[in-house]
Amino acid sequence: MKFTVISRADDHSKETAQEVRFKMEKMGLLYEEEIPDFVITVGGDGTLLYAFHRFKSKLDKVAFVGIHTGHLGFYADWTVDEIDKLVNAIINDHLQVVEYPLLDVSVSYLDASREMKYVALNEATIKSSVGNTMVVDVEVQNTLFETFRGDGLCFSTPSGSTAYNKSLGGAILHPTISAMQMAEMASINNRVYRTIGSSLVIPKHQPCVLKPINKNEFNMTVDHLHVFHSGVRSVEFRVSEKTIRFARFRPHPFWKRVKESFITD
Ligand code: NAD
Question: Is the CB of residue 162 below 6 angstroms from any atom belonging to ligand 1?
Answer without folding.
Answer: yes
